[in-house]
């Protein structure tokens, strides 16, 4: 009894210390974002930011890249994972290996390989949309896992046979039977992708595209208080995305990709 | 219906249409991964080994240069120490919140915060720590007010030590996320059995708890190591690319900041992939051993 009590005191102390370590940077960033020099505190960093066209452009760029990444991921991944579960179980080990490969090839190495391999056409490689290519790969471990878990919980064989006997083709089957049954898995995959893409810096920085993270870094070189304000915004975006992942059910909010 | 037909006719007859559909459904995905992940990696391999006159070991040999060795040493120290910090602190925290006596609310609070913190990294994380422990950071100034001058005592946020402090911010939560299932898998009966045989807390952990957790702890450590090893945004934003780390060196080559050839960049990237391959092999072995206990 005495031992248990002593443990809980030291345990509580450890939890408290960890809490301080995790909360203080957020508070410090918050205070710093209101700092106007000397003893002045106010909203000037935020007001300056609102008027910066580049901020909105970079936010918009990242957001639409995230949406494109989700779209491309779903178009390539849903049919593949669906078919693997339904008819081609033999592919499962290969898919599992492929889905962890993005961990083996670090983003900075992948971008080196991509730039060495693909130099054109410039209408594609020269625009920010090219970033979608590596982003799909970057998000793959999470999107594949979410879809794999989601499909495993469905009786695909029955669903397929039922819809086909009612005259549905493969397209109808995927869009009108499969997708509605996978909403929580898909929402989880989409939200994780948003969190990853909104914070992604490696590819965008090396390929010289002005995404949100690149913009935060750029602002950090000139105005520390504005960078602090954007840091808070970025934390809120991550927090909302993770909240969404937890609320959509599957709970397995895992590590992101933007270190 | 399809299945009975397939079962009765020779495999070759049914195989053809099924194969065609398989290509249609799975082909695009395999093509994508091949074109944008496998081929670029192979391209690095080819680039690192080819000079003006064909095959050469010149660029691989350049990995032995002092600057490159420093980068690899820094990266490996940073990754292994920050993974150890994550393993120890994250492990203990996970254990504390999962204990039967721990308040329910605490547990869901810590796990959901972990999900956010494990994903909150990169450039914003770097700036959060600059606001806190940078040379003009809040905590730095506050400690200075108390008479403790961190930077005079040799601490710098922009060094390997500083980066370890920053990396802990995503390593600890990640550890909590990945180790929770393993700790939950420790069954109460095992502890009771040990206690009935006269084991105290320490003996239980020494002979039962830790040996069972060991494979999970190893695979978690390896995951954390790889996580830190490939990190680029955080150190880049924090040190503006001045601290020698492998990912930063590669980006310096790619952006033409240093007088190194693209082949050297490819060799560096290949070196990174080699480290990660070894890491992931260990991971697979450890995860398989961990799975033995997890299935129960």
From TrEMBL, chain A:
One Pfam family named in its UniProt record: BPD_transp_1
Database matches in CDD domains: TM_PBP2 (cd06261)
GO BP field: transmembrane transport
Endpoints of the signal sequence: none
Location(s) in or outside the cell: Cell inner membrane; Cell membrane
Keywords recorded for this protein, A-Z: Cell inner membrane, Cell membrane, Membrane, Transmembrane, Transmembrane helix, Transport
Cellular component aspect of the GO annotation: plasma membrane
Main location: membrane
Residue ranges crossing the lipid bilayer per the database entry: 12-35, 63-82, 94-117, 123-144, 185-208, 228-249
Membrane topology annotation: Multi-pass membrane protein
The ABC transmembrane type-1 domain, residue ranges: 59-248
Keyword Membrane tagged: yes
InterPro entries, per database record: MetI-like (IPR000515), MetI-like_sf (IPR035906)
Superkingdom as given in the UniProt entry: Bacteria
Similarity annotation: Belongs to the binding-protein-dependent transport system permease family.
Record's protein name: Spermidine/putrescine ABC transporter permease
Organism per entry: Acidihalobacter ferrooxydans
UniProtKB/TrEMBL annotation, chain B:
Pfam family, one: BPD_transp_1
PROSITE patterns per the UniProt record, alphabetical: ABC_TM1
Residue ranges of every copy of the ABC transmembrane type-1 domain listed in the record: 72-285
Keywords from the named record: Cell membrane, Membrane, Transmembrane, Transmembrane helix, Transport
Protein's membrane topology: Multi-pass membrane protein
Compartment list: Cell membrane
InterPro entries (UniProt xref): MetI-like, MetI-like_sf
GO terms classed as biological process: transmembrane transport
GO CC annotation, single: plasma membrane
Chief location category: membrane
Residue ranges crossing the lipid bilayer per the database entry: 20-39, 76-98, 118-143, 155-183, 203-224, 266-286
Family: Belongs to the binding-protein-dependent transport system permease family. CysTW subfamily.
Name of protein: ABC transporter permease
Species assigned in the record: Acidihalobacter ferrooxydans
